[in-house]
Specification:
By secondary structure, the chain is an alpha+beta fold. The chain has 2 domains: 230 residues, 2-Layer Sandwich (Nucleotidyltransferase, domain 5); 244 residues, ATPase, nucleotide binding domain (Nucleotidyltransferase, domain 5, 2-Layer Sandwich). It is built from 17 helices and 23 strands. It has a 7-stranded mixed sheet. The chain has a 6-stranded mixed sheet with strand order 3-2-1-5-14-13, sandwiched between helices. A two-stranded antiparallel sheet has the order 4-7. The protein is globular and about 70 Å long. Bound molecules: adenosine-5'-diphosphate. Adenosine-5'-diphosphate binds next to helix 11 and helix 13. The site of adenosine-5'-diphosphate has 16 residues, from helix 11 and helix 13. It holds the Pfam family FGGY_N. Belongs to the FGGY kinase family. This is Gluconokinase. Its EC number is 2.7.1.12.
């Protein structure tokens, strides 16, 4: 390896944007560039994106980081990809899209998911594939396409994810890494191969899918046109990489067994890494590949920071006005008010399932509930109860993961919620565990760059990336608060069980197009 080649580019193809980041030695950021794109909703519950718009964002963002950092041709050692999971595009024989890119947020296959679970041994499929049966996953989406658009389904030559589409356009090769494949519901964890029973159920063959490769697989020989537009040499090694979720663990330094990453942005996720594939008897957690020796066990929650946003937008007019006058962020004001109330919100408990719930319940009909409201509760109690509800939901996911992988010993937090030291402390108190706050900006892009270096043999293990990441603060749990939360958390779990059937009824009142 030429010693002047000291730069690795991580490209993260996300849901709202594609971000390219140029990293120097020790993972420091030289330049970064993000290009946003929209989500199209042609029908209620659908969520699609234009694959060619995303491809162009990849090309332009790579070019932009190279230009911004003024990087000469010879200095780029490699480029590694990260991408959002669960996307699906049908292509014709010449590689042209027959559908837009149907993304994880698309809910059209709700009925197919229910049938897969109830009538087609869905739990067994989950146990073989590691992907929970849910409309987010390509498996029910493919079943939907088969049933609702049979002609298009029959005409389709390939079914690919957005990363496969980008790689196809760059290299004219259909390859899919184990990580993206492991989030399709079509891939067997034990054999690292497509699940023939699932393919049979869908009526497709392996020829409809890409060639399976490890996440460390390297491609070279990019089409000149794109290499030129990106300002890359066509033979720069490109590492196919993995999914954004599993790479985010690398990017925050949670790679060894027992280390967990908790991200709470709009939604949230808890993830830890196991050296072997592990699924849950009760179907609560996912298991996705990072490499053949690193399996990410975790669970996503729908109800993260979006709840504080909902509170701010629907009920926080007063706070928004005051914050504007003071020139501060309304979130900071809301969280300040919440601090006037003790842990437990003086008997106000909140079940946060405003957008249904994925892990641990996988129940689209779950709904939000304030429990225990009395006349002494003021707006600050409600604010605090909402923040506590988010922490309870994240804790319930962490407990499901613990059942599958064993105790979680080190927890690293990130996402918009981590901007609030008060909210972070609340989560430490709820979990009764110390939390670490790593300094990361683009965890998945950093993870993609680290995986690229690992693939090239430049770093001995993915854990090396940990040494690049500073810890900016730590939160030690307050024992008194942990005791209060422990009692309330038990009630939270009981309340969910008691309300489960009622959620189905109340959800049926919601307008179908809302
Ligand atoms: P995304 O998932 O879209 O990337 P972010 O990671 O930016 O979202 O997280 C956004 C969420 O973070 C907001 O909805 C809010 O709940 C939370 N958040 C952002 N800033 C603050 C803050 N200063 N205090 C508390 N919470 C915050």
């Amino acid at each position: 390896m030429n010693s002047s080649q000291d730069i690795v580019i991580g490209v993260d193809i996300g849901t709202t944007s594609t971000k390219a980041v140029a990293f120097g030695e020790q993972g420091h950021v030289l330049s970064s560039h993000a290009i946003d794109y929209p989500i199209v909703q042609p029908h209620p519950g659908w969520a699609e994106q234009d694959p060619d718009v995303i491809f162009s964002a990849v090309v332009k963002s790579v070019n932009a980081v190279i230009t911004k950092a003024n990087i000469g041709h010879g200095r780029i050692k490699a480029l590694g990809f990260s991408a959002a999971m669960h996307s699906l595009i049908a292509l014709d024989e010449s590689g042209r899209p027959l559908t837009r890119c149907i993304i994880w947020a698309d809910n059209r296959s709700g009925k197919q998911s229910e049938r897969l679970l109830k009538e087609m041994n869905g739990l067994d499929i989950y146990k073989r594939t590691g992907t929970p049966i849910h409309p987010m996953s390509p498996l029910p989406k493919l079943l939907w396409l088969k049933e609702e658009m049979p002609e298009l389904f029959r005409k389709a030559y390939k079914f690919v994810s957005i990363k496969e589409y980008v790689l196809y356009r760059l290299y004219s090769q259909y390859v899919v890494d184990y990580s993206i494949a492991s989030a399709t519901g079509l891939f067997r964890l034990d054999t690292l191969d497509w699940d023939v029973d699932v393919l049979h159920l869908l009526g497709i063959t392996r020829e409809h899918l890409s060639e399976l490769v490890p996440t460390t697989h390297i491609v070279r020989g990019m089409k000149r046109e794109w290499a030129e537009q990106m300002a890359l040499h066509p033979d720069v090694p490109v590492i196919v990489g993995a999914s954004d979720g599993v790479l985010a663990n690398v990017g925050v330094g949670a790679v060894l067994p027992g280390e967990a990453a908790i991200t709470i942005g709009t939604s949230g996720a808890v993830r830890t890494i196991s050296p072997v594939q592990k699924t849950d008897e009760k179907g609560r957690t996912f298991c996705y590949a990072l490499t053949e020796h690193h399996w990410v066990v975790g669970g996503p929650t729908n109800n993260g920071g979006i709840l504080l946003r909902w509170l701010r937008d629907e009920f926080g007019g007063q706070e928004r006005e005051v914050a504007k006058k003071l020139g501060i962020d309304p979130y900071d004001l809301l969280t300040q008010y919440a601090q006037n109330v003790p842990a437990g919100s003086e008997g106000l408990l909140f079940l946060p399932f405003l957008s249904g719930e994925r892990a641990p319940y996988w129940n689209a009909n779950a709904r939000g509930t304030f429990f225990g409201i009395s006349l002494h509760h003021k707006r600050e109690h409600f604010i605090r109860a909402v923040m506590e509800g988010v922490c309870m939901s994240v804790f319930s996911v962490a407990l499901a993961i613990r059942d599958v992988t064993g105790p979680l010993s080190e927890i690293r937090v990130s996402g918009g919620f981590a901007k609030s030291p008060f909210w972070r402390q609340m989560l430490a108190d709820m979990m009764g565990k110390e939390l670490l706050v790593p300094e990361t900006h683009e965890a998945s892009a950093l993870g993609a760059a680290a995986l690229a270096l690992y693939a090239l043999g430049d770093i001995p293990s993915l854990d090396t990336a940990k040494t690049w990441i500073q810890i900016t603060s730590r939160h030690v749990p307050n024992k008194e608060n942990t005791l209060i939360y422990s009692e309330l958390f038990d009630m939270y779990m009981r309340l969910y069980d008691r309300l489960k059937d009622e959620f189905d009824v109340i959800a049926s009142f919601q307008r179908k197009d809302s």
